[in-house]
Amino acid sequence: MQRMMRYGAAAGATLAALWGGTAAAQQAPAPAPVAPAVSAEDAADVQELMAQLEALKANYAQEVRRLRELDVQVQAMQARLAGKTGAAIAPTTATAMAPAAAAAASAEAASSGASGPPPAGYASSTAEGKQAKEASRRSVNDVKQQQQALFNQKLTIENSLTYARYDRKLLTLNGFLALDAIFLGNIAIENVESDSLTYNLAARWGISPNFTLNVDMPFLERKTVYQKGGAGGSAAAIAQEETTGGGLGDIAVSGNYRLFPERNKIPETVLTFGVTAPTGREPYGVDWKVLERDDDQFIRFAVPSKQPTGNGVWQANIGLSAVKTADPAILFANIGYIYSFKRSFDDIDSNPDTVNPGSVRLGDSYYFGAGVAFAFNERTSLSISFSDKLSARASTRYQGGQWVKVIGSDANAGTLNFGVTYALNSHATLVSLLGVGLTPDAPDFSLAFKVPYML
Length: 455
Prior knowledge:
- Helix content is 26%, strand content 45%.
- The protein is an alpha+beta fold and 455 residues long.
- It has 2 domains: 40-123; 136-454, Beta Barrel (Porin), CATH 2.40.160.40.
- The strands form 3 sheets. The chain has a 12-stranded antiparallel β-barrel with strand order 1-2-3-5-6-9-10-13-14-17-18-19.
- Helix 2 (40-80) runs antiparallel to helix 4 (89-112).
- The model is unreliable at 1-30, 84-125 and 173-179 (pLDDT under 50).
């Protein structure tokens, strides 16, 4: 029995040893696999693929730069052609181009592995396109600002200075012709030379995208020289007197309403209406200085003691203007009507020895004009235009009397205008205008400089 127990213990020890060895074998880590050897042919293929990848990256970067350049050029051309085809074309192509340009820019940055700004000479396509569009429209906006109004500006302050020269000579013969060869009577030479300098301060508010409100406040300085000859029948005897005057002129308040924006064949059409207040010194009731009398005390030569600075009556005006871009030309035209209200004064007689109260009603006026401007570049434009103003005869009525038309008070003032605009910066523009009188009622010439500043 003891022998059997010894055999059992030995067998158990043997099984325990075998079980422990198996478990240890299972817990031991497996040996690492042996890496296969790389052949020289495979290494050559990898090098060739890497070279092809680098070449494709370089070509792709060049295509991205080219895409940016084309995008900027397309947007600039769209801005210049906006007057022909309307503004609707720009969003379509620009919307399609913008994602492509953005994706190209991202791809270029990813391929180059750079996160900094693009290379010199290549800015963001959206920013450059916007700048190109604004630059192309600047000359057009400057022309529109002078002809009607800009509706995309909140506030514009305009300072202008205008000089006008008026010179008229008149030979009068008061008598009769004897024997068809000898003139018997009084020969008189009359000459009036007038110089005026006007400073105008104007403010233009953009109330809405289609309506602007304007206020013009002029200040005038005038000098007039009167010459009269013919005393005693001799044209050599000439009397001369100079008078001056200055101060606030007639303040005007007006509004511009855009009826139709420019699109396809329809020009931008603007309705203008306004009122002019008689804030200046009226020409009625001004004291006159007598320089020469006849033997019977008839006044032969008298001049006003000071020059007026306004019309003296309320006026209302309404007009219509149109602007059409036809790259590189800009066509514009206007037409309007001015109505003058009658007004009473304490004295309407030019005779300094009498005082006659009465009423004055200036004649209605019609004005029209047309011209063309050429935008040379984003800063400069040249314009040439014709303007005319037709005024009917004025009427006066002494207190208790009838209305009488004033002979010679009607006028036809035609002017040929030349203008140059130059953009000083993104806010200010210099406008120079030269007007040449074509009719006797227009100034001989006028020269104006304007600087509108857009806030």
